[in-house]
Amino acid sequence: MDQTNTPLHSQQDDQLADFADQVLKGKMKYPASPPTDTLPGLEETILRLSSSFPPNPLDDAAVKQMHVRLKARIRREEQSAKPSFWKKWFGRDVSPQLGLAFAVLAILVVVVISAPSLTTSGSSTAGTASAPVNIFIAGGLLLMVAIAFWVSRRK
Amino acid sequence: MENTFNPTLPDSTDELLIQNFKDGRKDAFDLLYYRHLPKVYKRVRYVIPENDVEDVTQEIFIAALNSLSSFRGDSKFSTWLRTLTNYKVAEFYRKRSRKQEPPLSPLSDAAAYTTDSAAKTMEERVYLQRALQNLPENYKEIILLRFAEDLQFNEIAELTSQNLEATKSLFRRAIAALRTHLEK
């Protein structure tokens, strides 16, 4: 791609910018540069852009109508929005990050309580036998929570 | 805090309106909406299929309404709204590709228009939208700033922290790239 700016390019930059200004003011309807030049093609592209997208697509009535529809949509969305699980239980919204941290903590508490190897009483032999199972369960639950979190973030 | 919001005051700054909104005057948002809708709508219209323009525009303002309380004023509101617009446009195309909908189709969109000239204009618009979407971000942005937002080249230079010569040069290269895409 051409990145250099020679004096010729600099002159063309000015000419094309002036042409765009004139077109947007509605004062230019045709390419202004001689056909031998490289600019007419670019000027034609500017004319195409300008004519395909009229400058004032919205009048006052359209703006007001859109505003009415926006307000109706906001009202509809507020009415249909169900309170989140966290709001139902705690009376206020909790961020997804805090929810995830809470879930991880709950899983860890369950694992610690149920792992025989971590309790002070009982046989250490039994603990070593069942601990890996608990780790797998905890890992699986953590993975499920992470997937659920990822899916909820994608929506 | 004393409420200074007056909806009939047309020269309230965006900053004052946002402050009023944060102070609980939710109707301050209406004035922001009326003030910025035309530019946002025009920008969206350059890059989104005609049938979805209003929907995407409304989504931008709903997102703005929902996050206005956290607007810190590090940049101008119009700059913040432009960033939000670009994000929502990108989101529109992300969702579209996830649903595996076909890309912009000039004939299907144009078919909804009854007169020949309207259909032709519509078809041309879709070609241009498709070409614009394929441009590098800085090329697309300078074309939108000049055509959709009607900013002068010196204003664009100031906004993008470039000198005027570099801005005009970027504009010429952007138009040349757009032409190349249109010829494909």
Short description:
The complex is a heterodimer of chains A (155) and B (184). Chain A has 155 residues and is an all-alpha fold.
Task: Write structural notes for this entry.
The complex is a heterodimer of chains A (155) and B (184). With 155 residues, chain A is an all-alpha fold. Chain A folds into two domains: 7-52, no CATH class; 85-154. Chain A is built from six helices and no strands. The longest helix of chain A is centred in the C-terminal third of the chain and has 31 residues, at 124-154. Chain B has a domain at 1-101: Orthogonal Bundle (Rna Polymerase Sigma Factor, Chain: A), CATH 1.10.1740. Chain B has 184 residues and is mainly α. In chain B, helix 3 (53-67) packs across helix 4. The longest helix of chain B has 22 residues, at 77-98. Chain B is globular. The chains are: A mainly alpha (155), B mainly alpha (184). The A-B interface holds A 1-3, 5, 9-10, 12-14, 16-17, 20-21, 24, 41-42, 44-46, 48-53, 55-58, 63, 66-67, 69-70, 73-74, 77 and B 30, 33-34, 37-38, 41-42, 45-46, 54, 57-58, 61-62, 65, 121, 124-125, 128, 143, 146-148, 150, 152-153, 165, 168-169, 171-173, 175-179, 182.
- Separation of the first and last Cα atoms of chain B: 59 Å
Most extensive interface, residues per chain?
A: A-B, 37 and 38 residues
Biggest sheet of chain B: strands, sense, closure? none
Q: Which spans of chain A of ≥5 residues are poorly predicted at pLDDT below 50?
A: none
The share of residues in helices of chain A is over 70%
Main structural class of chain B: mainly alpha
CATH C-level name of the domain at 1-101 in chain B: Mainly Alpha
* Cα Rg of chain B: 19 Å
Number of domains of chain A: 2
Q: Could you say which overall geometry of chain A the principal axes of the C-alpha atoms support? A: elongated
Poorly predicted regions of chain B: 1-5
Tally the helices of chain A: what do you get?
6
Shape of chain B: globular
Please indicate the percent range of residues of chain A in DSSP E strands (runs of 2 or more). under 5%
